[in-house]
Design a protein that fits this description.
The structure holds two protein chains of two kinds. Chain A is mostly beta strands. Chain A contains no helices and twelve strands. Classes of the chains: A mainly beta, B mainly beta.
Chain lengths: ~120, ~110
């Protein structure tokens, strides 16, 4: 069975600094997709970034980028120039290979990020 | 407005009293899922549905039932709720295909006493 591990339950960063959230996963599949979701205090779940395993290039979305290491099964999220609005719970997620939709995701336990002024 | 609507947002009930949490989407999505979120455990999938009349178990299906009689609705049924089902529940939907974003409802906070 696929598993997703986020080893940092909580992290904090100063505003404007850079922070990296860790995620590792376990799978025997070769083709799959990985995601980072953000959940602010409003409880809303927001997709931050997505990575296809067959792509060697790391995905980037504005201040958010990933470091995808397929051999190591590692998928970390880097947030540059942290802003107060980045304060949230961040979830790493793996899409099951037999699932044809993002509706079939396995989530990690989450990392609570606090951005301090 | 495209959205996933869950009701109720908050629910307090007693052990053994059957309840249903409704979920409806207006985007004609094929995929729908239910997750529960617990502190320190993240989101765990309860059930998912790939289309009408097609449902399958997720990682934590025990104590739950679902049905998908219509494309837009995917209710979560707790026949005999127990205190360990106290949790935050999310319904989500998407088109088929990995590039289709997952739309989440606003969550239902369930407390079983």
């Amino acid at each position: 069975a696929q598993t997703v591990t986020q080893s940092q339950p909580e992290m904090s960063v100063q505003e404007a600094e850079t922070v990296t959230l860790s995620c590792t996963y376990d799978t025997s599949e070769n083709n799959y997709y990985l995601f980072w979701y953000k959940q602010p205090p409003s409880r809303q779940m927001i997709l931050v970034i997505r990575q296809e395993a067959y792509k060697q290039q790391n995905a980037t979305e504005n201040r958010f980028s990933v470091n995808f290491q397929k051999a190591a099964k590692s998928f970390s999220l880097k947030i540059s120039d942290s802003q107060l609005g980045d304060t949230a719970m961040y979830f790493c997620a793996f899409m099951k290979p037999d699932g044809g939709s993002q509706g079939n995701l396995i989530f990690g336990k989450g990392t609570k990020l606090s951005v301090k002024p | 407005e495209a959205q996933v609507t869950q009701n109720p947002r908050y629910l307090i009930t007693v052990t053994g009293k059957k309840l249903t949490v409704t979920c409806s989407q207006n985007m004609n999505h094929e995929y729908m899922s239910w997750y529960r979120q617990d502190p320190g455990l993240g989101l765990r999938q309860i059930y998912y549905s790939m289309n009408v009349e097609v449902t399958d178990k997720g990682d934590v299906p025990e104590g739950y039932k679902v049905s998908r009689k219509e494309k837009r609705n995917f209710p979560l049924i707790l026949e005999s709720p127990s205190p360990n089902q106290t949790s935050l529940y999310f319904c989500a939907s998407s088109w088929e295909g990995v590039n289709s974003p997952l739309h989440f409802g606003n969550g239902t906070r369930l407390t079983v006493t």
